[in-house]
Description:
The complex is a heterodimer of chains A (about 280) and B (about 350). Chain A is mainly alpha-helical. Chain A has one domain (about 1-270). Chain A contains twelve helices and no strands. The longest helix of chain A is centred in the C-terminal third of the chain and has 33 residues, at about 235-270. Chain A is globular and about 60 Å long. In chain A, about 40% of the residues are buried. Helix content of chain B is about 35%, strand content about 30%. Chain B has helices at about 55-65, 85-90, 110-120, 125-140, 155-165, 185-200, 210-215, 235-240, 255-265, 295-310, 325-330, and strands spanning about 5-20, 25-40, 45-50, 70-75, 80, 95, 170-175, 205-210, 220-225, 230-235, 245-255, 270-280, 285-290, 315-320. Chain B has a six-stranded mixed sheet, with helices on both faces. Chain B has a four-stranded antiparallel sheet with strand order 2-1-4-5. In chain B, helix 3 (about 110-120) packs across helix 4 and helix 4 crosses helix 5. The longest helix of chain B has 18 residues, at about 185-200. Chain B is globular. Chain B starts with a strand and ends in a 12-residue tail after the last helix. The chains are: A mainly alpha (about 280), B alpha/beta (about 350). The interface of A and B includes residues 99 and 270 of A.
Amino acid sequence: MLEVIKAVFKLRWKYTVRYPGWAIFFIFVPIVFSLIPIILGWAVAGGPQQATINFKLRVGTENYTLFMILGSAVWVLSIGVMWDFGMWLREEQEMGTLEQLLLTPANIYHILLGSTIFTVALSATQFISVILFGGLMFGFLPELAKPSTLLAILYLVLGIVPLTGFALLIGCLIVSIREAEAIIRLLEPIIAFLVGVFYPITIMPSFVKYLALLIPLTISLQDMRAVILELDYVFNPYLDMMILLTYCIVWPSIAMITYRYVERKAKKEGGLGGY
Amino acid sequence: MINDIIVAEKLRKIYRIKVSKGLFRKSLKEIHALKGVDLRVKEGEIFGLLGPNGAGKTTLIKILTTLLLPDDGRALVNGYDVVKESRKVRASIGVMLMGERSLYWKLTGRENLEYFGSLYSLSGEALKKRVNEVIEFVGIKDFADRLVETYSSGQKMLLAFAKALINDAPLLFLDEPTVAMDPRNAALIREKIKLLRDEFGKTIFLTTHLMHEAEMLCDRVAIIDVGQILAVGSPQELKATLRGKSSIEIDVKLDRIDEVIPAIRAIDDVIDVASSYVKVNGIDAVRIRVLCNSPRTLLPDIIELLVKKSIDVLYVNPQEPTLEDVFMYYTGRLLTEDTRQGV
């Protein structure tokens, strides 16, 4: 198992580092992305000071830059994992190598796990880079240098595990349909909206809020902000953790069952080589 | 005693595809890719599956290598059921499928082999040793450390062939192993295939639509067309089924050919006629193949007919029967024809 995971990780690493142009996009886009609502807030409120007062009134913290950058970093993490993993599957399918993987005796879940670990490692690196650069730009790094940050990281990790299941589900969708890119492009803003990248989910209508809570990173993000910026938890720290732990089992299980179904259907209808 | 390393019994595969019938209406069309295929391949032989595009060759190879599930029937490979014991089947076979599309172009050849070796549970020194052995055997040392995207088509095919050998399996499935290759590399692969059987005792199941390749390489050949196995035997046995029949190959300029074929077919003693488009010295031409009992008496009649119809004859060659004639005898067509079932 470890050999297969290592081999897939190494393959993906080589593919990534041989074409390093993406690195610029990798760090700066999320920061620019979070600058938009910050500057928009200044414009609407009539300046940074008024924006701070308004934000404190609505959200409960003055540190809107950390709030936004955290949201933006979590968003790129979620999009990164889902997009990168799904598109890896599609790329393998288009190149013709997906069928080659299925011709080997290696357990397909070990192959998928190897790729997932790489995707998570890449997205986590992006997350850390965004926080570091954002922290240097806006001067909030000292606020992260406290023990409670570790708890925030735990909430993040508990959100990433079910996210990988989510990513595999999207991967299943991608290998089954032609218009995969359109679906992904559609999902990006929907997820940004639901996760609460630029606002707390508490301001959403109830039914939207509960729909948003099906996405693991919604809870992670809300609770990370709760820990670091002393805001409200989704429900309470323990219940939120229990929900995330349940998601850690439920989402990957649903994804594995779905993948098995998609693979079997493809084998009945003509293979995973075409779509 | 020689065992059957591949056994297929009454294998059926039906593809159901959606056909558009107007803006919102769709109907399902069934394509019977395999219609009850029975097949046995003996251990240690080179077995060729010969048929035109769309005959069912790739479907059969995909079922035997566990990429597709049959709708009916069963198949055993190396004694394992392809549906119930698919992982054991995959561990015991080497596969060359889809040629150059089976490779990672942004990796080097060696990295490709190492990667796939890892997926067959090879690691460390054993993996490195096996990769070097395969590189040496196939003769790709000169370019093994270059990125695959810089390879020629022939080099990619050689690497795909090397990849099929990485797990040292007793049974190899090679789907059109020399397709799109230059003659030199194609000859090299054929030579290696023979060596794998003679020196290493491998069983090789290959598909091809090149009858000279099948004749040159295979101990036994199965002729497949529109999802059915029409004949199985050694090339000699298959040719013997024509019992004294011969063929005449005539290349003519591409002109009024539709009139000519029925006219030839109407001549006494002609058993069958088939044609395909070819280039002869840069000229677009049609190759007509006439299967008959006595070419010596028939040839003047055919030439007279062509002259009467003012057809330019480029080349005439009376021949001993080949597998092409066997194929034509069973199907009424040439191997080069595409028999995909239209949608």
